[in-house]
Amino acid sequence: MNRYGETPKMIAACITLFMLASPLTATSALAMGSSNTWSEGGTDLSAVSELVETGMYDMAIDKVEAMLKDDPDNADLYNYLAYSQRKLGELDSAAQNYERALMINPEHIGALEYQGELFLLTGKPDMARESLARLEQICGTDCAEYKELSGKITN
Fold first, then answer.
1. pLDDT number for residue 44
2. Whole-angstrom Cα distance, residue 140 to residue 62?
3. Whole-model pTM?
4. What would the 3-class secondary structure string for the chain be?
5. Stretch 31-49: mean pLDDT, rounded?
6. Please, what is the end-to-end C-alpha distance for the chain in angstroms?
7. List of domains in the chain
8. Tens digits of residue pLDDT in 68-98
9. Which position among 78, 97, 120, 128 has the lowest Cβ density within 10 Å, counted as fewest Cβ atoms?
């Protein structure tokens, strides 16, 4: 997808092929805290989800920033923004946007998981454990986000 929200035909064909060929493509979308491509507020996140799943983080950031102009209180959008920034190494911006997502929705399990991963990446394992404890309170030890973060924390 280009910066104008259009998907060139060749890229669209590649994305379709990639999604059909890999059963793991839904993993990042699920961990974002939602089992579908619609946010809690009714915003269609399918374009952003597609960009993130295919590693097009720069384009995902552009798309999310445009969407935030119309939906500035959407925790899912801030989570996608932070996730993409983290993947690009923009760790300070990612930290700020995970915080924004959690200010809007303190129980956003995707943001909690990924914020914990950011804490690990930045040498703050105690803070990652705090994120893990919050996940346990919200969704228990059997939810995917808890298991994912727990598996990355070393004691």
1. 85
2. 34
3. 0.76
4. CCCCCCCCHHHHHHHHHHHHHCCCCCHHHHHCCCCCCECCCCCECHHHHHHHHCCCHHHHHHHHHHHHHHCCCCHHHHHHHHHHHHHCCCHHHHHHHHHHHHHHCCCCHHHHHHHHHHHHHCCCHHHHHHHHHHHHHHHCCCCHHHHHHHHHCCC
5. 66
6. 41
7. 26-152 (1.25.40.10)
8. 999 999 999 999 999 999 999 999 999 999 9
9. 120
Q: Which two three-digit tokens encode residue 26?
A: 């839904």
- Look at the chain and count its residues: 155
Both tokens assigned to 118: 């950011």
Query: Under a CB-based contact definition with an 8 Å cutoff, are residues 49 and 29 in contact?
Result: yes
Q: pLDDT tens digits for 102-140?
A: 999 999 999 999 999 999 999 999 999 999 999 999 999
97 Cβ contact list (under 8 Å, min separation 6): 78, 79, 81, 82, 85
d(CA 14, CA 138): 38
* Residue type at position 17: L
Cα 141 to its chain centre, rounded Å, is 20
Q: Which two tokens stand for residue 78?
A: 């801030």
Q: Is 79 exposed, middle or buried (0-12, 13-18, 19+ CB in 10 A)?
A: buried
